[in-house]
Amino acid sequence: MPPRHIAILGGGLTAKTTGRLGLQHRTRPASRRPRLCSPRRRPAHSPTVVKLRPRAGVLDPPPPGSPIRSSPPPKSSPAAKNRYLHVPGTPGIYKIPGPRLSYLWSELRFFIQPGINFELVRGWNRPEGVLDESLESFLTRRGHAITARVLGSAIGHGIYAADARLLSVRAAFPKLWELEEKGKGRILWYLLTRGKKAREEEKQKADEEQRQYQLGDVPKLMDGVSVYSFRDGMGTLADALGRAVAKNPNIRMLPGTEVTGLRFDDEHGFEISTDRTNPLLPSHIVSALPLPALAKLIPDSHPLPYLTTNPASSVTAINLVFPGTKIFPRGFGDTLAPGEGITKVTVMMGGPHRLREGDTALPVVLAHLQYHLNRRAPLPTPLVTRTWQHKECIPTPLPGHLERMKKLKEALDGQGWEGRMEVVGAGVRGVSLGDCVESGRGVGSRWA
What ranges does the record list as Basic residues composition bias (predicted)? Predict the structure, then answer.
């Protein structure tokens, strides 16, 4: 049955992308709450296992009216070339070495090299019938346990604010699984020896994917750029999408309206109850809500599986602005207004490590930062401090996530639902900005 009236549940990037790109001619977003992966949320680092990333270099004045806060530093800047890693049990941070001679005297080689050595010589060793596993299990099987513990933990914390022992490698890092199959086990050997034809096919595939988007002059603008930031944070993108959706005369937005119930209606298809409006009667629904929030709305007569299987990480982000520009290693921190001599650092805490009362107090945070930087002298008192609490903001896809989402889709296509509701968002496809946008962009492709 073709859609007559479509309701979009959610208020984040995926919901707004659905209204702007996926169903822009005939949708009616109904926002349960303006919070699906808040645009200002960022991945967390635990207070004990931290991957410290540089932010930016010296900033020039932004172009008038530009949403980008600064002229992005080039790839030759310290912020682009330097990445740092803290290893549990050791004070200080280590600069992650690249494929250069300096690798030979990098302390991190003792953690990295065992994984490289074993990965190069091991053939196909995936157990028969295994369709997924955790990131740490994958890195251990292909490489070495110490590499998996140090690098796997940093990657899991840095992107998903999750425990690498619980994070699905197929859902979170599908490229690793694909490269293992292409290389018949040996990932690094395949990357080093693949022929010109394979590289050309990969480039052609990437070009085809890029042509699906109207990029304008963005590729030229970002050519050679390493890192950049928006004047008002990542919320700039969500706000721009919201304004574009609001201009569509076929769309009625209900910001701040909470969905309180959902039931089937014989005449219209669905009846959606809210706390501010009369019942909505759509024929089709797009849910971009967090899966646990959606689970509370699903009627008992038509249950959906796996909505509450995956946990979600809570993150505390603390922005600190320090006086001076030379208190951190080169490329670490965000040097703001070089004439004024101040540096901004963001500390992420939480994730799989539950925070206790007092863990986010400023003296405790500064002590952690001092230990990670291996400083003898205490850090100067910050000029500005801002703390942001993000509760259950990043879903953690557990092993088997892709198979579970396949079964969820089968249930939505089955009796009762008849394919009239699509479930999308960070808890389904992935937590990255690209995944959220692509989820919304592809909605409704099967609806006549």
Answer: 23-44
Per-residue tokens: 7: 């309701």
Examine the domain organization and report whether 98 and 170 are in the same domain.
yes
Question: To the nearest whole number, what is the mean pLDDT of the chain?
Answer: 83
Quick check: is 446 in a domain?
no
Contacts of 426 (CB under 8 A, 6+ apart): 12, 14, 36, 37, 290, 394, 395, 435, 436
- Which of helix, strand or coil describes residue 1? coil
The letter for the amino acid at 418 is E
Q: Is the pLDDT of residue 326 over 80?
A: yes
Q: What is the dihedral of CA 354, 357, 359, 364, to 10 degrees?
A: -170
HEC sequence for 222-258: CCCECCCCECCCCHHHHHHHHHHHHCCCCCCCCCCCC
Give Cα 296 to chain centroid, integer Å.
Answer: 24
Nearest C-alpha neighbor of 76 from the set 207, 226, 196, 202: 226
- For 348, list phi and psi in degrees, rounded to 5: -105, 135
Task: Report yes or no on 100 lying in a domain.
Answer: yes
Query: Strand, coil or helix: what is 328?
Result: coil
The pTM of this model reads: 0.85
pLDDT tens per residue across span 409-442:
999 999 889 999 999 999 999 998 889 988 998 8
DSSP per residue over 107-164, as a string? TTHHHHHHHHHHHHH----PPTT----BHHHHHHHHS-HHHIIIIIHHHHHHHHSS-T
Question: Does residue 47 sit within a domain?
Answer: no
Q: What total number of domains does the chain contain?
A: 3
Backbone φ, ψ for residue 444 (5° rounding): 80, 10
Q: Are 158 and 254 found together in one domain?
A: no
Whether residue 350 sits in one domain with residue 374: yes
- What is the pLDDT, as a whole number, of residue 34? 28
Residue 273: Cβ within 10 Å count: 15
